[in-house]
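ok trying again, last paste got cut off:
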Amino acid sequence: MKVDKIMADYGFSISSSCSGLEWYKKTIKHKDQDASIIITGNEDSGLPESLDDPILVEIYDLNSGNELEESQSFNSLKSYLDTL
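nice, full thing came through this time. structure:
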């Protein structure tokens, strides 16, 4: 199964910047605040290409854009998804 499909099953969609950087994003409630989870590949700040790729997970306030928690690294996308 493709990573995009797996991420969609968990409620994530692909977002990108004007400069072409891509990430997976999901809107959530975090400590009663509207927030978004951002997932990028830990190596190149792009999309992880497989469930085995290391990733970086960040949580941002939707209104202010401020980081709500310190970034977390995971050894693989699969290990993060297993926590959900």
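cool. The chain has a mean pLDDT of 92. The first strand starts at residue 13 and ends at 16.
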